[in-house]
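Hypothesis: this fold can be encoded by more than one sequence.
Test: take the structure tokens below, design a sequence, compare later.
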């Protein structure tokens, strides 16, 4: 639609009128200037509320503002810096199972690793292997069901006990049970181990603190969004590096120069500029949050176009990030493009892998730190090559995944 019709497109999805917006100026108007007028869509809430409750991802208005204010301190730079060593330690532990010549499902490995990290940093806990596998299955079920829901014109009423709905209830229950156990443990012990949950539950405003129900909704959101998106980004990064040996060689040269074989630390991150460029370029080509939906709460004008109250507006970072007006060779993996202050020269919101405005992803700094540290830790020891005969396809569910997984051959550097 962007190629054929431009930056503002009206279209119909069955009987439903919708709009697609692509120009950074229009995105800025929606996500920044008029953010208070645009809520998450009713469809988004209907599909995600059964699992995420009233978490930050789908909440709106004053309740969202209060929750964001309570949670924000837990994501300040000084707080998340303390998690760097945990991220590196867990990555090294995961790599202990890797052997040269092995073919591994790297998408699964990255999911398991980032899940372990988010559970440790969020709750100060560890999952059993059985719990880890169950959570992975639960997230897969949720992704498929919600992804299908966005593509379905008419959904079954909530009271119809379909097999898919029963699977969804099982998946939600798996994660709920784990979160309830962790919250109950904190309430009983009041032990602050520097984890995000302790910070959230200890936060207080003029209306008091966070209820267990609110904490559950936020924890559920952070578990699902906090590991799945980073895992997908890393999976795409390994794929892109395997296809671009010059970029991989530049990464290795930087790691050898800055780290010299030792473990990366938080203090090393400013010097790992090419490592950061790889993450940014991966997020440009394969943004985990590849589509954003908003619904105006009143009649609005987007640029010179009138949009009635309640009509869904779609924004697609995947499309905006591949626009030749903002990026030369937009479909080519060129991490070096980020080394020359490109981000400062781009129009605001031409690049929005974490969204924009007041609703920008609360965990963006956490995710960027995690992705860079994992990339640096693994790439010092291993190279990964796509398994022979495999074809990589994109699967646009709630996030952007490789459709048939990502089997890769492990090679020692």
């Amino acid at each position: 639609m962007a190629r054929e019709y431009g930056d503002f497109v009206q279209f119909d999805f069955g009987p439903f009128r919708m709009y697609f917006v692509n120009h950074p100026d229009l995105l800025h108007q929606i996500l920044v200037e008029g953010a208070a007028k645009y809520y998450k869509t009713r469809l988004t809430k209907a599909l995600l509320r059964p699992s995420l409750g009233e978490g930050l991802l789908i909440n709106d208005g004053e309740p969202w503002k209060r929750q964001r204010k309570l949670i924000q301190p837990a994501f300040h730079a000084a707080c998340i810096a303390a998690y760097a060593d945990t991220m590196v330690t867990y990555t090294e532990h995961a790599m202990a199972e890797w052997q040269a010549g092995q073919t591994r499902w790297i998408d699964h490995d990255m999911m398991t690793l980032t899940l372990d990290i988010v559970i440790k940093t969020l709750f100060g806990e560890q999952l059993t292997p059985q719990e880890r596998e169950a959570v992975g299955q639960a997230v897969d079920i949720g992704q498929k069901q919600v992804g299908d829901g966005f593509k379905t014109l008419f959904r079954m009423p909530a009271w119809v006990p379909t097999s898919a709905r029963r699977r969804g209830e099982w998946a939600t229950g798996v994660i709920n049970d784990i979160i309830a156990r962790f919250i109950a443990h904190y309430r009983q012990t009041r032990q602050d181990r520097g984890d995000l949950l302790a910070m959230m539950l200890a936060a207080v405003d003029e209306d008091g603190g966070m209820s267990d129900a609110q904490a559950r909704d936020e924890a559920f959101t952070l578990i699902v969004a906090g590991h799945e998106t980073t895992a997908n980004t890393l999976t795409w990064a390994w794929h892109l590096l395997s296809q671009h040996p010059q970029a991989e060689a530049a990464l290795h040269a930087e790691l050898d120069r800055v780290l010299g074989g030792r473990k990366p630390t938080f203090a090393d991150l400013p010097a790992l500029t090419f490592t950061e460029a790889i993450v940014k370029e991966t997020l440009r080509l394969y943004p985990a949050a590849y589509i954003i939906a908003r619904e105006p709460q009143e009649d609005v004008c987007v640029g010179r176009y009138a949009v009635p109250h309640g009509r869904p507006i779609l924004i697609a970072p995947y499309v905006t990030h591949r626009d030749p007006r903002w990026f030369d060779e937009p479909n080519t993996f060129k991490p070096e493009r980020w080394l020359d202050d490109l981000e400062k020269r781009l129009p605001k919101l031409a690049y929005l892998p974490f969204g924009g405005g007041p609703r920008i992803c609360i965990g963006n700094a956490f995710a960027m730190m995690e992705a860079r540290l994992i990339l640096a830790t693994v790439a010092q020891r291993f190279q990964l090559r796509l398994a022979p005969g495999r074809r990589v396809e994109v699967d646009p569910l709630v996030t952007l995944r490789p459709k048939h997984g990502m089997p890769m051959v492990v090679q020692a550097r």
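The chain has a mean pLDDT of 91. The first helix runs from residue 2 to 5.
Hypothesis status: open.
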